[in-house]
Structures are given as structure tokens and as C-alpha cells.
Design goal:
Largest sheet: none
Distance between the termini: 9 Å
Order of helices and strands: HHHHHHHHHHHHHHHHH
Structural class: mainly alpha
Shape: globular
């Protein structure tokens, strides 16, 4: 019976991953479609490719955080089943009405709500102090980033927009600032690199390629590439004609959209990975007779070890590979109602503003992933679009639409938690 429930959870989690893909497709492609850089079909193919590419870029930090939302030693598979069903239900409902809610918080809320219904408030990891060299974690930190993620996105996009606007002027000072930023970026990324000697599991025999393709290093390489690409454009912006500026801004939108899609894949697929890993961990705990050898036998490798104080950790390859593949397929399906909301209803978006918003959103997602905090890509890109709108004037942002989005964000966790708790009680009567 337990194994059957586990398989059902894995299937439903992948369905959620697929829904997440088409639900959140708008986050990466709305501005590209709105500015007519790509057709809707081209845009979803573009986004899907980079969502899948994230498999080789990001680690499993966010997955670990999601998996430890509740103590896996004190819950059962019914808890996770109720949580994933509630998350799917809320995601479909918000998609139907064209509301860009958070798939992340839907999943966290569902998982936490069902766990509380099963074992009380103490079963949830509300707050976990930071270990040396890390950051605090827990549901309260995730809740805090409901506000912080869009705020960071808004601040970043506002600053990038101001930077671009000043770079368009024929003045030496923006160029000096840009050169200084380029130097600072190179130095910062250099000191963030993990050397070969500190890599626990090198991917290649070559020291160089192992360093280059270490997931921690790849993220910082991407950050440097994005900032340096925008910087090079800023150095020549003032000398370009209006038509040439528009041409290159549209080319840069391809880069910024790709960067955001990478961040979306790395952030959102890991949440589903975390749920599947938590389900397998619970299954192993409920069946102590199982051995590591029997669990790892065959293609369905169920030998999962969540990270602990000793650093022990094991994630079967099929889990991340399947999750990244499914979210890419979901992205191909698109989410056209939300594309319309994100691309035009919050504020009118040009290529200039699209570059600023997507670049800011991507950098925010890389930063939060580095902190192992699951955030809403929807909240992040919405905040970034608002930040861009604020550079024109406060009234350029359609605050009526924005306020309705905020209500959806605030209500997502408690509603999905209550729904999951109710489902848990119903399912417990039959399972």
C-alpha cells in the first residue's frame, strides 16, 4: 500500500511540475511577447529550452529546504499526498482565472497545512538558525520572501533602468561607472569561485572543466556574463541611433529572457524535487526493513538521503532529470491568460523595460537560489516590472491590478494550507 501511495505522489508531483511550467510560462516570456521580440510559440520554445538547461546549472539547495518543510520522521505519505493535491487544485484555479499566484507558496502551504493536521504545529520547521557560513531557513523565512523577493526585484529593476537611462546620455560619468562596475563584478565573481581542491565530487578529470562546471561556479559565471553583457551595451548606448538602440535592446531581451528561464527552472523544479525526495524519505522511514541495496536496485532508484549535519546526501539522477524535463514540457504549453496580465496589465512594457525587468528578476532568482530559499518567480518578475514602471512615474503602474495580485499572494499559503488540511482528514478516512 505504501509503495502504491508513493508512486501516486510521484505522478501527482510531476503533474504539478507540468502545471507549474505552463502556469509560470508567462513569467519568462510575457515581456518578450509584449514587445514582439518573439512570437508566442517561439517564446515558449525558448523558455522551455532554458528551463531544462537549468538541470546542469543548479544544485539541490532549494529542494532540500522544501523537503524539510515538515519533519519527515513525524509525518506519513498521506500528508504529502494531501499537500500535493491541494497545490494542484489551487494552481489550476488561479490559472483558470488568469491570476499569477505562486506555485512555490501553494506547494509549501499545502505541505505545511497537511502536516499540521497530522501532527500539530511543532512538526513544521518554522525557523532554523543559520549554521556557520549559511543563512536561516524555515517556513517563516519563506513567508518573509513573499515580500522580500518582489521588493528585491523591484529595487534591482529600478536601479538597472536608471543605469540604462543615464548610459543613453552623452556623458563620461555613466561610462566611468560602468567600467568600475565591470571591474567590481569580475573581482567579486573571482573571489566567489570554488577551487578544485574544495569540490567534493568533481564532474571531470580536468581541473579546469570541473571548476567551470561546478554548479556553484556556473551560477556566478552567469551573473558575471549578464552584468558584463549589459555593461558592454551601456558603454556604446549613447552613440547608437534610436533604431540601432531598439535593435540591440531586442537582442538583449533574448539574453535576459533566457537568464530568467534558467532561474525559473532552477527554482521551481527543485520544489518538486524536494517533495518527491521527502516522500521517498517518509517511505523509507515507514519501511525500515528496506536496505540501501534494495532501494537502489533498478531504474527507479529510491535511495534518497536528505542532507544532514554530517553532510551526507544522495539524490537519484532520475528525480532532477525528470523534474526539469517535465517543467520544460509544461512551459511549452504556455499560460496565455497570465501572459496577458503580466505583459500588459501591470504597466506598458517596451524592450528597454523588458531587459531591465528580466535581468533584475534573473539576478534575484540566482541570489535566492544561492541562499537555498524557494521564492515565487511570479512575485519576482511582477516586482521587477513594477520597478521598471516606477522609473517613468508612480502612476505608470496600474496599482489596481497590482493590489489584486498582492491579495492572491497573501492568501495563497493559508488557503492551500486549509485545503490540504481538509483533504488530509478526508484521505485519512480511506487510507
Amino acid at each position: 500500500m505504501d509503495f502504491t501511495i508513493l508512486i501516486v505522489i510521484i505522478v501527482l508531483a510531476l503533474i504539478f511540475d507540468y502545471i507549474n511550467g505552463f502556469h509560470d510560462a508567462a513569467n519568462a516570456i510575457a515581456t518578450v511577447v509584449a514587445t514582439k521580440v518573439l512570437t508566442p510559440f517561439q517564446a515558449v520554445v525558448w523558455a522551455a529550452f532554458f528551463n531544462f538547461l537549468a538541470y546542469w546549472v543548479f544544485g539541490f539547495g532549494v529542494a532540500d529546504t522544501v523537503a524539510k518543510t515538515a519533519n519527515t520522521m513525524e509525518i506519513n505519505l498521506t500528508v504529502i499526498l494531501a499537500g500535493i493535491i491541494a497545490a494542484i487544485g489551487w494552481n489550476l484555479l488561479t490559472w483558470w482565472f488568469g491570476i499569477p499566484s505562486s506555485s512555490s507558496h501553494t506547494l509549501i502551504g499545502g505541505f505545511a497545512g497537511a502536516a499540521i493536521a497530522h501532527a500539530g504545529l511543532d512538526v513544521v520547521t518554522w525557523f532554523k538558525p543559520a549554521v556557520e557560513g549559511g543563512v536561516p531557513s524555515g517556513v517563516l523565512i519563506i513567508v518573509a520572501f513573499i515580500v522580500l523577493a518582489p521588493l528585491l526585484g523591484a529595487m534591482a529593476s529600478y536601479l538597472i533602468s536608471i543605469w540604462l537611462l543615464n548610459s543613453s546620455k552623452k556623458s563620461i560619468y555613466p561610462k566611468l561607472f560602468t567600467i568600475g562596475l565591470m571591474i567590481a563584478t569580475v573581482l567579486f565573481v573571482y573571489f566567489q569561485m570554488v577551487p578544485y581542491e574544495e569540490i567534493k565530487k568533481p564532474r571531470f578529470d580536468s581541473h579546469l572543466w570541473s571548476v567551470v562546471f561546478e554548479s556553484h561556479n556556473i551560477k556566478w559565471f552567469l551573473v558575471a556574463f549578464i552584468i558584463l553583457s549589459v555593461s558592454i551595451f551601456c558603454l556604446f548606448f549613447s552613440s547608437l541611433s534610436l533604431s540601432k538602440s531598439e535593435y540591440w535592446l531586442k537582442k538583449m531581451q533574448l539574453l535576459s529572457s533566457a537568464a530568467f528561464s534558467l532561474g525559473h527552472g532552477g527554482n521551481d523544479s527543485q520544489k518538486v524535487m524536494g517533495i518527491i525526495a521527502a516522500a521517498v524519505a517518509v517511505y523509507i522511514h515507514q519501511n525500515p526493513e528496506l536496505t540501501a541495496e534494495s532501494l537502489a536496485n533498478g531504474w527507479l532508484d529510491l535511495y534518497v538521503v536528505l542532507p544532514n549535519e554530517t553532510g551526507e546526501f544522495h539524490m537519484p539522477t532520475w528525480i532532477p532529470l525528470t523534474c526539469y524535463s517535465v517543467i520544460a514540457l509544461g512551459t511549452l504549453s504556455g499560460g496565455w491568460k497570465i501572459v496577458k496580465t503580466m505583459g500588459s496589465k501591470i504597466t506598458k512594457v517596451t524592450s528597454f523595460e523588458g531587459v531591465a525587468a528580466e535581468t533584475a528578476g534573473a539576478l534575484t532568482l540566482y541570489f535566492t537560489e544561492h541562499l537555498k530559499i524557494p521564492v515565487s518567480t511570479t512575485h519576482t518578475i511582477t516586482g521587477s516590472i513594477i520597478g521598471v514602471g516606477l522609473t517613468k512615474r508612480v502612476s505608470a503602474v496600474r496599482w489596481g491590478v497590482t493590489v489584486s495580485l498582492l491579495w492572491a499572494w497573501v492568501l495563497t499559503i493559508p488557503i492551500s494550507a486549509l485545503f490540504a488540511a481538509l483533504l488530509y482528514y478526508i484521505l485519512s478516512a480511506f487510507i
